[in-house]
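Figure S7 source data.
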Amino acid sequence: MQEKMQRVISFVESYIHQLPRENHKRRQCFLLFLTGIICCTGGVGWSGAYIYSDKPYLAAMCSSVVTLGVYSLYTAFKGLRKRDVSVFSHLILFICIIISLTDYPITNIPRSSHTYLLVYSIGGMLFLRNESNYFKNYIPLFSLLLYFILSVSDISFTSEDFHPPVPIMNNGVYVNYAICLLLMFGILVIYRSDYTNEKYIECALTKAMIKNELFICYQPQIDNNGHVRSAEALLRWKHPTKGFISPDSFIPVAEASGLIIPLGYWVLEQVCRDMRIMNSHNINVKVSVNLSPLQLMEPGFTYNAQAILDKESISFNRITLEVTESTFYYDKKKIAMMMNDLSEKGVSWSLDDLGSGYASLNVLNEMPFDEVKIDRSLLKNGVNDVKNLVIIENIIEMAKKTGMSVVVEGVETEKMAQILFNMGNVILQGFHYSRPLPLDEFVAFMKRDHSFSGCN
Ligand code: C2E
Ligand code: CA
Ligand code: CA
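Tokens for the predicted calcium ion complex:
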């Protein structure tokens, strides 16, 4: 018994150890883990009770809860990707509605399953606050509305097959309320820690901009001839006591608080200053700058960007702006106008992180993109992942036909570089060539005589 307990403890410990380091994602995964355990045990328990009471339809319905549980556990271990947010939101809503409709109120036993809709609505509003309006507002609002309707009415399935026996309903009230309270408590505790952490980062980031704790690193991008064609500017924050803080932790906070607007201008200013220094060393490569959707939605962006570039005499032709597909959840028309405006001034546009989530290729057609960047997740399984390599090859083919260039991120080995170069015209970026380098190291890197092998 003690040995079994020890095995469970070491399993949980090893799970916690491999959770993402970023706090919000860490908590998200842990909540998914808990949801998975609750849904699997609850789903199996209720299915058993219904089979025992000769209600096969209800037992089958409860198996959908087990499916949700297994999916939660799967994502808790693998990490929540963008596509999972959509699957989860719809799956949970669907299951909550179906279960609430089987649970009709009778004398002395109120409906209780619909309380999950309330919990889901609050959880969605708090946890999906960085997602699009659809996920963070519309679906939670719809759930709240349903919760209200089911609270004041006795709508349910008309077929007797879908009505649970009275003793199960009686116990169900206690079980449902207990689980809802537990989930609500978990959601609020996690939200409180997230909120405190975000407020801390927000405050410290504001100071960091003034106290020179931020700087830019440049990661070279290599073309088919083995030459450095361009570089990506990546923001770095060296906190005096906490050390390096990953942009994956502070960029989302800056986006949520609106701080990304001044921070984005700071990045552009710093990049232009650095490019002037690069010019003085005869380094005239193009530089890619990451742009958050909120920056593009800012009415004065084109004007302000022009002023920043003019100040350092940098031409727009030397700048590529990288945006992700999430940019187009906002006002597409307004963003298209802004992008076309900047394109006319000479800016190149790059669609970042292609292949990371549910990126649709439609935006490539609708917006003036010059480049696509294939996400490094497509390379994570190495050279043996034939399926992903075929996907990359097709993207390269598609880009060639539409006149766009292709950058592949996350190249870590020479073998991978050769496979990709042999697929066609590509630009490669990754640790195999160089990590992102501070300006002085980047200048030294560029001055060295490189002998990268290009296309064979
Ligand atoms: P991103 O735009 O996808 O940037 C590429 C990330 O991949 C960088 O992480 C880079 O260090 C990492 N990387 C490059 N090559 C390799 C490789 O071979 N293997 C692996 N495992 N990783 C590689 P980093 O610097 O931590 O940046 C993370 C994200 O933070 C960026 O992802 C970008 O979305 C955001 N970010 C960074 N700087 C800025 C900025 O100035 N503005 C905005 N809005 N976002 C930024
Ligand atoms: Ca990028
Ligand atoms: Ca990327």
